[in-house]
Amino acid sequence: MSRRLEDLSGPEVGERITDSSIIVLPIGAVEQHGPHLPLAVDHVIAHEAAAALVAEYGDAHDLWLLPTLSISKSNEHAWSPGTLWLSATTMLSVLDDIARSIATTAARRLVFLNGHGGNSALLNVACREIRLDHGLKTFLVHPFVPADHGGESPEAELGMGIHGGHQETSVFLHLRPDLVHLEKADRAVPAALADNAHVKFGGLTSFGWLSDDFFPEGHIGDPTTANAAEGKELFETAVRLLGEQMAEIATFDFGR
Amino acid sequence: MSRRLEDLSGPEVGERITDSSIIVLPIGAVEQHGPHLPLAVDHVIAHEAAAALVAEYGDAHDLWLLPTLSISKSNEHAWSPGTLWLSATTMLSVLDDIARSIATTAARRLVFLNGHGGNSALLNVACREIRLDHGLKTFLVHPFVPADHGGESPEAELGMGIHGGHQETSVFLHLRPDLVHLEKADRAVPAALADNAHVKFGGLTSFGWLSDDFFPEGHIGDPTTANAAEGKELFETAVRLLGEQMAEIATFDFGR
Amino acid sequence: MSRRLEDLSGPEVGERITDSSIIVLPIGAVEQHGPHLPLAVDHVIAHEAAAALVAEYGDAHDLWLLPTLSISKSNEHAWSPGTLWLSATTMLSVLDDIARSIATTAARRLVFLNGHGGNSALLNVACREIRLDHGLKTFLVHPFVPADHGGESPEAELGMGIHGGHQETSVFLHLRPDLVHLEKADRAVPAALADNAHVKFGGLTSFGWLSDDFFPEGHIGDPTTANAAEGKELFETAVRLLGEQMAEIATFDFGR
Amino acid sequence: MSRRLEDLSGPEVGERITDSSIIVLPIGAVEQHGPHLPLAVDHVIAHEAAAALVAEYGDAHDLWLLPTLSISKSNEHAWSPGTLWLSATTMLSVLDDIARSIATTAARRLVFLNGHGGNSALLNVACREIRLDHGLKTFLVHPFVPADHGGESPEAELGMGIHGGHQETSVFLHLRPDLVHLEKADRAVPAALADNAHVKFGGLTSFGWLSDDFFPEGHIGDPTTANAAEGKELFETAVRLLGEQMAEIATFDFGR
Amino acid sequence: MSRRLEDLSGPEVGERITDSSIIVLPIGAVEQHGPHLPLAVDHVIAHEAAAALVAEYGDAHDLWLLPTLSISKSNEHAWSPGTLWLSATTMLSVLDDIARSIATTAARRLVFLNGHGGNSALLNVACREIRLDHGLKTFLVHPFVPADHGGESPEAELGMGIHGGHQETSVFLHLRPDLVHLEKADRAVPAALADNAHVKFGGLTSFGWLSDDFFPEGHIGDPTTANAAEGKELFETAVRLLGEQMAEIATFDFGR
Amino acid sequence: MSRRLEDLSGPEVGERITDSSIIVLPIGAVEQHGPHLPLAVDHVIAHEAAAALVAEYGDAHDLWLLPTLSISKSNEHAWSPGTLWLSATTMLSVLDDIARSIATTAARRLVFLNGHGGNSALLNVACREIRLDHGLKTFLVHPFVPADHGGESPEAELGMGIHGGHQETSVFLHLRPDLVHLEKADRAVPAALADNAHVKFGGLTSFGWLSDDFFPEGHIGDPTTANAAEGKELFETAVRLLGEQMAEIATFDFGR
Known about the structure:
Distance between the termini of chain A: 36 Å
Largest sheet of chain A: 4 strands, parallel
Number of helices of chain A: 7
CATH topology of chain A: Rossmann fold
Oligomer: homohexamer
Order of helices and strands of chain A: HEHEHEHEHHEH
Largest interface: A-F, 58 and 58 residues
Shape of chain A: globular
């Protein structure tokens, strides 16, 4: 049985979607990822992670998949032709429109499954707006939490591998090896940034950056050590962690 | 070789996309289509038609596919939970953002391949806005022109079969037979409307309508006669016609 | 007795406007029409057609005239100083504001009588928005349907006479001969466009265009053969057709 | 020779409109004016005053008339069906769009000739926005300055006659006697307001008000004493004063 | 006891704020005031006047102070780096947001105490919008009414002293003598403007202006004669007048 | 010498503000903080921390203070009258307007010093928007990083003390003891939330919440143990950490 909302008919939505259903919106991006990776990276990862999540845990937690939002807020890569990006206000409107639509179903839980770190802050904003404006319980999960939002990055990248680096390239070698040009990959680790105590990815001080602020190639990290085996493990761990999170989301209540 | 823009890397966009390239954005919808069809109908048709078009004619006319915009302006179905819809202003912003992004590449031609009739008027507006604001040549094509925009509808439907009727259901039986519940289909043809000389789909007078203005089921047409064989023929004809249109678009100039 | 809404007092609106009343908003434009016609063409035609319509059919169908919206979405002529134009979003807001106002009266039918083809797509959008947001029955009629929206254009113009051509100039020679400079008129027919099978006015493929994309003069058609006699006939036919449409609008119901 | 901008052709705009031209936009309103006056009052007065102004002083100061903006910001009368009103943001957008259009001509002076007091504050705002954004010299003039913007009001009305009172009704008896129902007029003077030292029309304290805050009839003033003779004098004085203002506007420079 | 709303806890708001409470929002500006005065002038004056007002009259009229809105619509000074300004639409949104918040308390009266003349027109607009949208009684008061809004200006300045002139500089010498550089002050009176009968500050014709339209220094008036003693008197008179206005506002009703 | 930008005159801005200057915008909030704390908490903390920071480190790093933005995005407390809040889009506009203003000075570094956790995500968004749109280097720092953005919270609060809890109350006891009603404080720790592995403040899963989702009192944490001594230490540590961050910001470059 399909767990894609769009595979239901109108009347079936009324029967199948209940207040225990969790609606999952995968959010990708189409944006430059350096010379070794295609624009599709975040799009593919969000899509594949969501598909695997629903395949493994869909029945357990009554998960329902929306079509992946392929294009999102990638303006840190606006300098690179081929990057497609929504402005912050457009993206907020899209999310509000989708949430306003979901709020007419019986479902009360909406999850953003976000594959693009550049969206995370805005999605956090949207979680609150939608909670207030449409009364839904809203959640934000990531297959891979970006280092600039508190996630981990390998030591070899000095903790600064956040875009097209070792981990992301490894995962992509696992998911779409045909689209990876590892021979074009080079190391692009902002060592000066890593030296900072506060102003760095994951540091106490956040800062606005564009992906060409650091290197002209556009990736930030070291893809040269990437490999499919590690990618497979990372991906499977990510899906398992997403499943754990869905389990909590399914029963989450504020306790009041 | 892939003809999806997102499968290119940033540097490859600079090499592969030229001023002879045609960028194709498939536009679908997630909206009720009566009790016999899933919400995904327009989404699937736009996606499949675009894929077939690019597979057959991509090299001939240098076509490049963007990810399908799955959710669009479906507010005539807002009454039916499960329908996901962008407001008119959100949708204009999304299209403007995408066009603004494409305008930084070398491509000068942007085609909206639209599977949802409810978008057609707005896409016509967007074609002009983008031509003026971003200098692109813009085009709007349909796999199936809706009857309320001048397209044909079988006589048995009195020319009023515009949503989930004989043709659309036939095409879907061809593309996704597993998702069609023909046993739930009934005839829903607004005969009184067809009797009008002017105020009807395709008539001299346009009018605002919501899909539950006519029948509570939400489809408009007669799906009971639908069959996969006719759907196959319709689909193949549509793809061939799209191919013909691309041939003209590829060499189109205003002649000035 | 006046049939202009604005000639009523507030209390009279409560008495005279009922749920059988039809509110008619004429929509014109102030935009270049080539060297032989004034900017006022669409403004005048919409205004005169609406006045004639209400004079002849106002009592029969309880028609009420709003002041003509003289300035509208003419951005295809933005290159020509003197053209006055509202952006798409401004125009949508204006229409929404007017509809929101009308919805507080007892009238339930609002007709856009549009003299400028550049508005047609946007007005189609507005018809639906207003139907959903304010509950009005909304209609779009034209004195002359532009060829790029399915209307006719003389064969001598290869079907491409859509702006300041034979028909429009003829009508204007009938309505305001003093404002026509026929001696400055020349033939401006985009023959290459007419040769296309699909990408042309009224073809299967819509496209974004600006009026100086074709010829530097700004009109599109052949005004050199225009004459007042034919204009008179065209105008009278148009008014009669508008009357017929009002008759259907007056009794129109969705049939549910 | 016509002095309506819209009567020019595109090429004529290039010849006739120069940097000494003054563009005049009459701004009216369609809004309730009590039981004795039609909705059209401000619309008619702005239109007639502008027409008289241009007829008498057009050649002297190179004045060019735009079509009257009939519907404007009348939300203080939103409670009364028949009132048509633009929101503040819509109205700002309309004015910006018109100014942006005018700025492409050679003219550098744009005058708002405003017949509706409810617009005055917003037009003051627009004057500055347009000066900064489009570089035009902008001016705001009134045929009759409303008492709540520093204008005069007869003593018999305690200085509070600002809407449908003695003066406005008199002027309308002069311009459109057929549309006045003096027999329905009654005195509606907010005496308590007039007793205030500061919080009153023209007082030190401005305040937000709706026209039904004072009396249910909707006018504010005493129309019972109105007469056409006084209206004629008021109107002619107004036109003469507008002429004087145009003379100064024509040569106005900031002196830097 | 504090009369700052922000010094209350949430539950105390429910107890202390009643329908007789008057909420006062001081509105300043950060904008150039010529070479002799700091950017803070309007900010300080609004803040100090509001503080004095509440100190003297707070208990009598149940006044409650909001934090001063320090940055507002100063776009006439946009040319001068250091000026901080909100656009007209941003400012309208800020005021609407604040009013929407206040409307959830028991208070029904909201007063804008405005120190910057460039805001006055927009605040007049906001007074009406808020009255209609949130049902509050709204008021606009000034410590000093600018000459271009009907206030007085000394004869020595030809009535044109509206920004950084004799009076404002005097008041600032009283409030913050340490921040005044009188030795840098020069006379900047637009004499040509004063010669006009209509097009001048306080004249019949309003006009759009930027502060560098007149003089490159940016102030408009004659600060060279300013002195603290006169400033003290002006300030104390202003506070007394504000107190009188609050007394009327406290009991103000429309009389219906 | 003052280090408030607003204390400079226009010409002084040109002299004193250089490309080594750091502009600091303190951002507070006026929002409910439970029964024991005033609405002003975040406003006061941001203001005082910024003042202390500039007093101690202003000369060392060329810091310049803007007026505190007192009202910000507090919509999680919208349910509590007295809370004043800007919508997300208003707040983005305010920040963009201020950044657009700052970008006309010679300064290239803009720091948001944020006292309200509800702003953090939106400020992260703004940092990027401003970097792209105005070319400024943008930074976000906090006196106290909220636990839901990765900051610490005492164990006694189970790590869930994020609003009006032990730490914030302690700091406020240090800064404004007169405004604290510790006798009204009670423990409000969402123990069920703390039990979660992922869906909790600082957990892997972010979620949208309103402050009354947990407890009707509106605070989240345990203020009963708060004391001024600890508050003093926390505050001084915060200021020292802010100083360290400014040192890095002063020399920060992307390294390209």
